Amino acid sequence: EVQDIADGGADWIHLDVMDAHFVPNLTFGPPVIKAIRGATDRPFDTHLMIENPDRWVESYREAGSDAITIHAEATRHLHRSVQVVRDTGARVGVSLNPHTPLSVLEYVLDELDLVLLMTVNPGFGGQSFIHSVLPKIAQLKSMIDARGLSIDIQVDGGVKPTTIGAAALAGANVFVAGSAVFGTDNYAQAISDLRAGARAATGMPTAV
Ligand code: ZN
Predict the structure, then answer these.
(1) Is 156 a catalytic site residue?
(2) Residue 116 carries which DSSP code?
(3) How would you classify residue 141: left for phi > 0, otherwise alpha for psi between -120 and 50, otherwise beta?
C-alpha cells in the first residue's frame, strides 16, 4: 500500500499513531513504521496522537520518521517536548485539536517546521471536515507571515476533493488524506483529484 500511494503520486507518507489513551483508537507503533520504511524513499510524516510523547519520540525517529508531530494537548510542557523532537533531528510539528486556540503556539511558533490543524476530532478515519477550522487556518497563516517564518500548515481529517480547496484557499499547503485515497480503487486518480482541487482554489503547488 505504501508503494502504491507513492507510485500514485503522494508526496509524503503520513502515519497516524494512536495510543487508545489520548484518542479512543489504537493503531501501530515503531515496529510497523520500521517494517514499511524500506517500501519508499518518500518522507515519513509521523503524527503522534499519544500521551507523554517525549518518552517515545526517539523510537519513532529511529524507526524512520523524517518529521514528528506531537499534540499540544498531550504534553504539559510543550516547549520542552518541541525541543525533544528537535534533538532527534526530525522536522518538528505541533498539532492542535479543533477546539484548541492558536494562542498555545505563540511562544513556540518560531521553533516549528509544521503546524497541523485537525479538521476532525482525532481518533478515527472517515469523519466529516469541520468547516469552523477554516478561519483558524487563515489566522495561523497570518501569524506565520507576520513573523516572516516558513512553516508548513497541514490539515488532517475529512480532506477530499470537495473540502481541500477551501483549506488551501485559507492557507494550508499540506493535506492529509486517508479515506479519500484508500477508499477508492485508483490511488493515482484520487491523489490527482485532490491536487487538482487544491490547485483550482489557489493556483499554488501543494503537497498531498
Ligand atoms: Zn494524522
Answers:
(1) yes
(2) E
(3) alpha
Its pTM surpasses 0.85: yes
**Catalytic position from the list 113, 152, 156, 193:** 156
For residues 167 and 79, give the distance between their C-alpha atoms in angstroms, rounded to a whole number.
27
State the distance from the centre of ligand 1 to the C-alpha of 5, rounded, in angstroms.
Answer: 16
Average pLDDT over the chain reads 96
> Nearest Cα to 120, choosing from 170, 84, 165, 163?
163
CA of 9 to the centre of ligand 1 (A): 18
Could you report the per-residue pLDDT of 42-84, keeping only the tens digit for each?
999 999 999 999 999 999 999 999 999 999 999 999 999 999 9
Q: Is 16 a catalytic residue?
A: yes
Q: Percentage of the chain with pLDDT > 70? A: 98
Q: Choose among 102, 105, 63, 108: nearest CA to 84.
A: 108
